[in-house]
Amino acid sequence: MITCEYCKQSFKRESTAAVHMCEKKRRWMQKDMPETIAGFTAFDLFFRLSMQSKPKVFAEFVDSPYYSSFVNFGSYCLNTHVIDAEAYTRWLVRNQAKLKDWAADRMYLNYVKEHLRKESVGRALERFIEHASKTSYFDTFWETASGYLIADWVESGKISPWILLCSQRASDAVGRMNTEQMNRVAACIDADYWSKKRDLSPHDAEWVSSIIDGVNV
Asked: Could you give the C-alpha distances from 28 to 8, 35, 122, in angstroms and in order?
C-alpha cells in the first residue's frame, strides 16, 4: 500500500498514487507560484499584525482554512499592480477590513486615495513613467491614450493627482473626456486638497510640468 504524504489516503498501485491530487498536495505543488507567494506573504503579515504571532511557515498556510482567500488576494495584487502590497495589507488590517473584501476594487480605490496623499512627487512621476513607457505611444501618451484608459489609471494610482493638476497636457486630456470618464476621475480626487497641496509646493508643481510637458523651469 502506498500512502499519500499529504492526506494519508492509501493506494494499492503506485501509478494511482502518482496521479492522485488531493487539495493539500495541490497547494504544496503551487508553492512557488507568484500568487501563492504573495498570498502567503499577506497571510504571515496579517497574523503578525493582528495577533502578534510569530512568523508563519508555509505548512501553516497550507493547513489554513483561509488559504484560498489569501491566494485570491495575492492574485488580485499581482493582476491589479497594487501600489506597495505590504502597505496595502497593513492598511486593510488597520482598517479592520473583512478578508472577503480584501480583493474588492472599492477597498483598493480607498487605499489609493490615502496612499497618494502621502507619497513623494518623485515616486508619483516614477510610477507613471514606469507604466506609460510600456505603451507603444509613450511620447504622445496624453494625446493618444483613451479617456477610459486615463480614468482606469487614475483610479488605480498609475496617474497621480500631482500630474493631473500640474501638467497642461494631462489637463487637456481630461478636458477631452466624456462625462462618464470625467466623473470617474473627479471621484478619485479631492480637488480642494490637491489644489492647496500644489499651491504650497510650487517647486514640485514646476517639476511635474517640466517632466510631463517638457517645460523648462
From this structure: 15, 13, 41
Tell which residue, 128, 63, 119, has the closest CA to residue 88.
119
End-to-end CA distance of the chain: 78
Q: What is the pTM of this model?
A: 0.84
What is the distance of C-alpha 101 from the center of its chain? 14
Q: What is the Cα–Cα distance from 169 to 144, expressed in whole angstroms?
A: 11
Q: Coil, strand or helix: which one is 142?
A: helix
Burial 95-104 (b: 16+ CB within 10 A, else e): eebeeeebbe
pLDDT tens by residue, 140-186: 999 999 999 999 999 999 999 999 999 999 999 999 999 999 999 99
Segment (H or E) for 196: helix 191-200
Strand-pairing partners, residue 68, are: none
Place of cell 517645460: 215
Q: How far apart are CA 20 and CA 95, in angstroms?
A: 42
Half-sphere exposure (Cβ direction) of 5: Cα atoms closer than 13 Å? 4
